[in-house]
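Protocol step 4 of 6: structure prediction from sequence.
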Amino acid sequence: MKVNSDTNEEFHRLVAENAMDALIVCDEKLNLIYSSPATKRIFGYTQDDVEGHSAFEFFHPEDLASHKARLEMLLKGKEFPSIEFRIKKKNGEYLWSEVSAKATQTTQGDKIIVVEARDITERRKAEEELRYNQKRFKQAQEVAHIGVWDWTVQKDILTWSEETYKVFGFATDTAPSVEKFLERVHPDDLEFVKQSIDAALKGKPYDIDMRIIRTDGKTVWANATGEVEYDSEGKPFRFFGMFQDITERKKTDAALRESEGRYRAITESMADTMIEANLSGRITYINHIMPGLTLEQVLASTVFDFVPPDQHTVVKNALDGVFKSGEITSYESLGPGPNGKSRIYEVRVSPIYAGDQVISAVFLARDITERKEMQEKLRKYSENLEALVAQRNVELNKTKEYLEQLIESLPLALIAWDKEFKIKTWNPEATQMFGFSEQEALGRSPEDLFSSRQGSSIGNTIWNQLLKDGQTKIVGENITKDGKAIICTWTNILLKDENGNLEGVLSMIRDVTEKMKLEERLKEIAYSLSGVKGGESYLSGSVQNCLKIVFDLKSHGVKSLCIVRENPDSLVKDYSFEPENIVLLSMKPIKEYKAITDLQDVAITITKFLKNNGGVVILGGLEYLISRYGFNPVFMMLQEKRFEFLETGATLLVPVNLEAIDNKERALLISELKL
């Protein structure tokens, strides 16, 4: 298409009327003389609404002075750069807009200003949220001494976060490189680090501890974890991860290893049996002599001599794990008791260090025969209790279904509104529900029927949503003529004539007050049967117990969030979790399930759930989080979250193996969360 003198005016009219941004024209007195159709879509104003009005009427009071000066300068021929400011909508709200303007003349020589305005409210919100998240992320790094690094392998470009610079002692204007990193690695660790990097680029896991010599000469311990991304040819192109100063943790570990020998005397008074053995399993120490044996006989034996043959492989694997990697292992086994009869023992195998080298393994055997017998009794009791609870649940569900059917059969109140959102039709059911006669109701606005807690502009909210989606459904608190509060569901649809012109809105209202009370009562009963309370945080020794509790609560409408390291498909299949309510503690997502590893992301995920849903949250994988970030950051996060659960009335369930945590950490957890 070619624009000529004949088509020029029509062409520009089409452009203006179909532009996505609002186009506004002012005369030299800065009064509005034209607005494009987009002005109504964005700000709600028609041509008649704005024509003849001063542009300053639509500015935010705080922006008025500066923008008035800019427009006046524009008329004098000065430049008007694109700026961001707030423009008042027809409903009184303000929208952030990106505005550009240009002074020109009409063919008659009249001065005019052409203004283009774009709604950037969502962009501003996104920018604010990004700045907030960046600030929180930086704070989390500083608290946990965690830095972030990112290496573009093929271009050999390395970037560090501010905390990574601090670990090495580099100034932040130093250009990072792999060579600078390797220069700071302790000579004794250098070859190990290089081999680990090479292995990671070939697909091996990267999670190592190393010593770093800072620029100030101080030697610190650091942990590096990372993940490699590959290009379409299978070649590594990006290697990124985290870097954490773990010096204090290493000092603590060393102090604990050195003090091991000081407490040997304590073992003599322990009720548990403690055995120290070398790599071959030869016993070198025992605190309690077994019945019928001398110390010499025991010291001439191996740990394999005191367990059944079918347990030899388990014991061998535990020994190998201790000496090769310092791995702590637990297992259960039969063994001789004080009276010569077989007993059930829970055995924990741990390393003993001399410096950085494992020199022996400690077998700590605890007699759990009575505990096993009690567990069996509890299991049978639990089965009976579960059957009873299941029966109660069936009865509750039947009652719930009956009452829901009864409530659903109740008549609807019907209200028709005109385009000004004033009542024009009011049926008898509406009179019965709200108490106003038809004569009293006509001409009223939505705010006359809603509680003040719903907001002073509930009508605008419904109207805007209707214009966007064509219909809305809300649940709100309403007020009757006599001041009584009721809970109602509102289904609203647009009313149009045969030509598609908007005539108003039809609202269909159902009183669900009793239904809501019933649901709350059912939830209370469900909580009572589960043994947990809203607003409380609990420790549990079993993930399955937590899942069973959540399953029962979910069946009565309690919202749930599951943050775990379990198989997500089994949670969906066995416990009816919705995939969107499952979050994996993993470096890589699985299928459609969301995956996070950052401690801050865990905290944010919980906060968002509590804000939008309430209900019950399972926070599994605590041992994994502690191994990645250390106990203190994880414990601080739990302390903070406990008060959020208390405030919202939600329930936190934290499954954790307390035997895998040292006594001090276990005591802190128990002091903060209920068992």
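Step 5 (inspection) to follow. Residues 326 and 351 are 6 Å apart (CA to CA).
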